[in-house]
Amino acid sequence: MHPTSSTPDFESLSTLQKDRFGPFRLKRLAVVLIYLSLAAAPGSLGEMTRGLMVDAYVQVAAFVAATLLLFYGAERLFNFDIGESLRKARGFQVPLASILGATPGCGGAVVVVAAYSSGNVGFGAVVAALTATMGDAAFLLIATRPDAALVVLPLSLAVGVTTGWIIDALKIGETQANTSAQCELAPLIGRTRPKDILYLLVAVPGLVIGVSQLAQIDLVATYGDFMIWVGLAGIAAGLLIWSTSTVQAMTNAKDSPITRMAEETSFIAVWVIGAYLAFDYVVAYAGLDLKTMFNSIAVLLPLVAIVIGFIPGCGPQVLVTTLYINGLIPFSALMGNAISNDGDALFPAIALNPKVAMLATLYSAIPAVLVAYGFYFFAPGFMN
Hints:
Blueprint: H1 14-39, H2 43-77, H3 82-89, H4 93-102, H5 107-117, H6 123-132, H7 137-144, H8 146-169, H9 179-183, H10 194-214, H11 220-243, H12 257-285, H13 290-295, H14 301-309, H15 315-325, H16 331-340, H17 346-352, H18 354-378
Helix pairs in contact: 1-2, 2-10, 2-11, 2-12, 3-5, 4-5, 4-6, 4-8, 5-6, 5-17, 6-8, 6-18, 7-8, 7-15, 8-16, 10-11, 10-12, 11-12, 14-16, 14-18, 15-16, 16-18, 17-18
């Protein structure tokens, strides 16, 4: 992110950053201690927590890392600034943002959120990207039901483009972010650090494990312990980077792709872990049984799936996709969830601009309801 004429440069912000992020890092250390305490807890609580942390890394963080490294690496290799390109796209800004959002995983939508935070895209592009994205659940759908994925992903893209254009045409929401505040949150780190390289080295086997799981290749019998250690090592490296970082969400475009990947993935992973733990703790200790709930209702199924899509992160959305794959919910519910869910891109959006994140999520609910109930009433057996 580049400071504007009304914004002081990064060097002049050093004192401000020390004042701002000193206590902030202490709060982060407190979160890390809570996570470690839960992971080290005896009995089923600790076992569940460690398992969820490993899942959060291999199912989400490794994919986010790969996608972000691809985007930022392409920027550096071709001297190509995606945010600047989006800004110059003008009439094609919304379609390009939708394409980034529809890319499997959450990295593309995160890039659009970053571009908005730096003033390179409008609010319509953010809504388009968040509407088009299915998050990491797309990987699962592609691996298990490619026929359904060939319908869901292009349709989500089309809905994203349409919704974004309508938002811009009606001049709804903020046209761009307040960039002066965001520049203060993106200090230049400089050289690639050893911990960034470490994160990359762990992410590679983590990605292999994640892809193997999506392809339903059973590695547990042979590589079970190795998978656990890779996941825990990735989480530990991410917590180290996040807890000692001066970056709140998005990184400076002048930093290396590896550093940007490590910083932003660790930031997202912390939120994902929290979402995974909160969701499964409720299921395990409060008796919430989503399968029973889905089986006990009919016309409300698409609406329930849409509401679940409002939950930040990919864990609940992966569950909805799993229920569809197992024949427990109709295609209409899957389609509604795919449009309403914002994946992990909602986490940095909340951190950078909670109002924009809330509005973008609410606006995506309108096409989600229309499309989901269109399938429910007019094509009830489609892709079931």
